[in-house]
Amino acid sequence: MKNLLILLFVTYSMICIGQDESQKPFQNSIALSGGFGITNGNPIRRLGISFDRTIKSNWVLNGSVLIDGSQSSWHSGNVISNDSLIITSDWRIESSNQMIKLGAKKYLFDFFYLGADFNLGIYTRTNVSRERQLDYDSDHDEWSYSSIIDPSQTSGGIWYSYTALEINRYLNYGLSLKIGIQLPVNERCNFIFQYSPEYIWRAPFNKNLSSISILRHFAEMKLCVRI
Fold first, then answer.
1. 122 pLDDT higher than 80
2. Residue 11 pLDDT > 50, yes or no?
3. Are 50 and 31 in contact (CB under 8 A)?
4. Is 8 strand, coil or helix?
5. Is 10 in a helix, a strand, or coil?
6. I need a labelling partner for 134 at 20 to 30 A (CA). Which of 53, 167, 184, 213 fits?
7. Residue 41 contacts by C-beta under 8 Å, 6 or more apart in sequence?
């Protein structure tokens, strides 16, 4: 699937570049982007790269490759204890997306645009558990961390062991809108501030799971260079 996504993006770029070459300078542009989003109350971090191709006055075709991810807060799990042992566990959900976007946008003014994209990618959802184990040392009358805990796995000065309990992958597809403002830096560079709501369907590769849909919101900043 990853190879298919790369192939689609490369093919799209070659088609765009292979169009009419007798065009004005700086008809194309490349942008690096970073942003934040929110879904189900959890923050998301996003990075990406995009390619734009002006096809006519105020109309632009664009393709993007994006990655984003989020982590929920830790939730209390089980506690097992006796006179010589205490084991506490917590769990949380970690998610990641690898996505391509193909779409278009129209500049209504020199600095303001509206657009839409088709989204396609892979979503990975991982249930993670962390466990802390304390053993009672009767010789010294004290509690100490178990020797099975990896001392490199720390969180806030506490030693934990981490385990991926369950990993599920989904096919992502959907539509998104985009509203942006472009601020020129010089003749070839611009800063772009963009808001983009996304409505995504997720089809699981595991047939025992159900398809879901989700609405996500993103605010992004891009550094755009015309080429």
1. yes
2. no
3. yes
4. helix
5. helix
6. 167
7. none
Q: Which amino acid is at 159?
A: W
The model's pTM is: 0.73
**Token pair 């204890």 in the structure block, residue:** 81
What ranges in the chain are assigned the alpha helix state H?
2-17
Q: Which residue has the tokens 């799971």?
A: 209
Euclidean distance between the first and final Cα of the chain, in Å?
Answer: 30
Rg (CA), the chain: 24
CB burial of residue 17 (10 Å; 0-12, 13-18, 19+): exposed
Neighbours of 87 (CB within 10 A): 16
Domain map of the chain by residue range? 2-226
Q: Which fold has domain 2-226?
A: Porin (2.40.160)
Q: In angstroms, rounded to a whole number, what is the distance separating the alpha carbons of residues 100 and 124?
A: 15
Beta-bridged to residue 170, according to DSSP, are: 123, 204
Structure tokens of 187? 């003749």
CA distance linking residue 89 with residue 133, whole number of Å: 9
